[in-house]
Design brief:
The protein has 717 residues and is an alpha/beta fold. The chain has 4 domains: 2-53, N-terminal domain of TfIIb; 68-141 and 340-545, Rossmann fold; 143-335, Dimethylsulfoxide Reductase, domain 2; 592-716, Barwin-like endoglucanases (Beta Barrel). It is built from 24 helices and 28 strands. The strands form 7 sheets. The protein has a 7-stranded mixed sheet with strand order 5-4-18-17-16-6-7, with helices on both faces. A 6-stranded mixed beta barrel has the order 23-27-24-26-25-28. Bound molecules: iron/sulfur cluster. This is Molybdopterin-dependent oxidoreductase.
């Protein structure tokens, strides 16, 4: 019987509403939801083909439909039953915890989990097991944005809405190829520009991307010079009298120290460091500061950096100095890479956070969460973040890993270390919808999870809007929901580790995703993201932005309109951050700067989009792009196979000329795993993809790795 179900696209942080068409157990079509305020019916190439990639299990061979267990390392995976799989997981984790303590286990989860899934995993790790070793692939995506907001504005809360795009007089798009990474939002930007051609668009990126094609002013800065650029813009604003001293005096602190720092960032010095004309700096500063409203849109170009927090904070400094915040059409607006990186942050599903934007380092916050959960305490020792977690496993300190809904054997930087970690860990359980990801090669146990079109819960997009995700078809095979799998193991662990269980019969009494969500909702009461005025019934009618406390008629589109910030004194804080050089600068042995990034029609490790031929029409095969002059200088021709080599590893790919890049730069899509590069390693595993090359050097504050830059050499193969 044909039916239609409202849900949300599972790909990027735009969070488009979709209507799923289904017939029995088969998803037959998808179209944009015309009533969803994130997209008003639009979908991009990925979203509009969701039904074709979700044709499992009828036409796809790679869905994981049953639990699979290896009798021993090196043996083939064999089908097993759920009780054996759950008992094995609980027994192995309990064994390691009893022998080596709770910090000998780690949970690595995903920004593609729903908020309810995330909540249960976080409570399982921190509440029951007693470790903060839970981190997520959102660490690779948004943690610098989190740290930047908290450092300056006092809370991890993007203050803007998509509707600000239509109201801005100046858009400053920096470190974001929105045309490919957030296509539906970019259509909105294009439309706004067409309606109001006077709107100024500045795009700042080392690559002349499709997004840069819309720019009135393009700033092709050298990789890693963003902080220098932002300080240089502030220097000009101060010199020209374009800052807002009265607003600064009323609503901020710390400006004098920053003023002293940027004094030496003269236009000439900054232009030289960034590799752009000084006149363009002046134009950018004028447009940013003197436009009635300026909105910054930014993403991984700032976040995926060993100085990611400083980059985020230095950009927010500009908004504070010019009072471009708290009004329609202005503010610093970080774009979220994954569909629910925001939801994960809301439940505190990171190694340094706690529920409802509480801080692990704050004793009162730990006590509040312990009381909410009914456990004696939440451990105070910071957990291992993504890179640290795999390093600890490679060093033998973390002995059991539970990985859910992510593929670290492809997506983490420095694959040699990650793969050493997966081989050394005594027990690796992978909870996944797909049986064929690179990480599955290393898992002792596979737990089949439901996927888009089958799941039930909520996600939060970049503009703080919570949307419902609804099931259109039943779970295929024996797949179960992620939250339910975590609950089933947690209840077994409560029996195996009674000293860690709470006073109540179970810390995990949930019977539905809504029952999980209601507990999460209660945890937000009185917090900056208070959603006590929301419920599934209301969200079923319309998505809403947080905060929406009890009694509120609607969520809030814009934050800080009253000029009061969630800091101890109510003032925003200027961040006196220093420019730092790249973690791995170019040098004579590794003379090229490699940047990785999204392609328009692919998603992450391609486990979904890589199954559909039409999505390869845009970019059909892996390649590394170089400037034509660099190719000529090094004797390379179009399509030549090259060794692309960093200090950590090497891959062989064809080379392609691109004048979108500056001299000395190279670019490769982030999606290409080893299966697209061919061959197997000496240990029999698939080769690592592009992340064999990238570095795990990370920002000391956010712990986000510098995926956007590695020094490489490129030699004919
Ligand atoms: Fe999905 Fe993002 Fe495309 Fe919207 S823009 S349809 S959320 S991938």
């Amino acid at each position: 019987m044909p039916s239609e179900t409202r849900s949300t696209c599972p790909y990027c942080g735009v969070g488009c509403g979709v209507i799923i068409e289904s017939d029995g157990a088969q998803i037959t079509g998808v179209r944009g939801d015309p009533e969803h305020p994130a997209n008003f019916g639009r979908l991009c190439s990925k979203g509009s083909t969701l039904h074709l990639t979700a044709a499992a299990p009828i036409t796809r061979h790679d869905r994981l439909l049953h639990p699979m267990l290896r009798a021993r390392r090196g043996d083939a995976l064999q089908r097993t039953d759920w009780d054996t799989a759950l008992d094995t997981t609980a027994r192995q984790f309990a064994r390691v915890i009893r022998a080596h303590g709770p910090d000998a286990v780690g949970f690595y989860v995903s920004g593609q989990l729903l908020t309810e899934d995330y909540y249960v995993f976080n409570k399982l790790a921190k509440g029951l097991v007693g470790t903060n070793n839970i981190d997520t692939n959102s660490r690779l995506c948004m943690s610098s944005a989190v740290a930047g907001y908290k450092l300056t504005l006092g809370a991890d809360a993007p203050p803007c809405s998509y509707e600000d795009v239509e109201q801005a007089d100046c858009l400053f798009i920096v470190g974001s190829n929105a045309a490919w990474a957030h296509p539906v939002l970019f259509r909105r930007i294009e439309q706004a520009k067409a309606m109001r051609p006077d709107m100024k668009i500045i795009v700042c990126d080392p690559r002349r991307t499709d997004t840069a094609g819309l720019a009135d002013l393009f700033l092709p800065i050298q990789p890693g010079t963003d902080v220098m650029l932002f300080h240089g813009l502030l220097h000009i604003m101060l010199w020209e009298g374009w800052t807002q001293p009265d607003w600064i005096a009323r609503h901020t602190s710390g400006f004098d120290a920053l003023k002293a720092r940027v004094r030496e960032c003269t236009p000439e010095a900054v232009a030289q460091a960034c590799g752009i004309p000084a006149a363009d700096l002046l134009t950018a500063a004028r447009w940013f500061a003197t436009s009635p409203s300026t909105l910054s849109l930014y993403c991984q170009g700032l976040n995926q950096s060993a100085s990611g927090t400083a980059k985020n904070a230095a950009l927010i400094n500009l908004h504070l100095a010019t009072a471009q915040i708290g009004r329609a059409g202005c503010g610093p607006f970080s774009l979220t890479g994954q569909p629910n990186a925001m939801g994960g942050r809301e439940v505190g599903g990171l190694a340094n956070l706690l529920s409802a934007h509480r801080d692990l380092a704050n004793p009162q916050h730990r006590a509040e969460v312990a009381a909410l959960w009914g456990v004696p305490s939440v451990p105070d020792k910071p957990g291992r973040t993504a890179v640290e977690m795999f390093q600890a496993a490679a060093d033998g300190e973390i002995r059991a890993l539970w990985i859910a809904c992510t593929n670290p054997a492809q997506s983490m930087p420095d694959q040699a270390t990650v793969r050493r970690a997966l081989e050394r860990a005594e027990f690796v359980v992978l909870q996944e919808a797909f049986a064929t990801t690179a990480t599955a090669d290393f898992a002792d146990l596979l737990l089949p999870a439901t996927s888009w079109g089958e799941k039930d819960g909520t996600v939060t997009n970049s503009e703080r809007r919570i949307s419902r995700v609804r099931p259109a078809v039943p779970a295929p095979g024996q797949a179960r929901h992620d939250w339910a799998i975590a609950v089933d193991v947690a209840r077994r662990l409560e029996r195996l580790l009674p000293s860690r269980a709470g006073a109540v019969p179970s810390l995990f009494p949930y019977a539905s995703p809504e029952s999980v969500w209601l507990e999460h909702r209660e945890s937000t009461r009185g917090r900056d993201l208070d959603i006590t005025g929301l419920g599934y019934a209301l969200l079923d009618r319309r998505p809403e932005q947080w905060p929406m406390p009890e009694g509120a008629a609607a969520g809030r589109a814009r934050l800080y309109e009253d000029g009061v910030f969630p800091t101890a004194d109510g003032r925003a804080r200027f961040a006196d951050v220093a420019w730092q050089p790249l973690a791995e600068p170019r040098e004579s042995r590794y003379p090229f700067s490699l940047t990785t990034g999204r392609l328009r029609d692919q998603w992450h490790g391609m486990s979904r989009t890589g199954t559909l031929g039409r999505l390869f029409g845009h970019v059909p095969e892996p390649s590394v792009q170089m400037h034509p002059q660099d190719m000529a200088r090094t004797g390379l021709g179009e399509g030549d196979l090259v060794h692309l080599t960093s200090r950590r590893g090497s891959i062989v790919v064809p080379v392609q000329a691109s004048d979108e890049l500056g001299l000395g730069q190279a670019f490769m899509g982030m999606h290409w795993g080893g299966e697209f590069l061919g061959g197997v390693s000496s240990t029999g595993h698939r080769l690592a993809g592009v992340n064999a090359i990238t570095t795990s050097a990370f920002c000391p504050s956010s712990k986000q790795p510098e995926l956007k830059h590695a020094a490489v050499k490129i030699m004919k193969a």
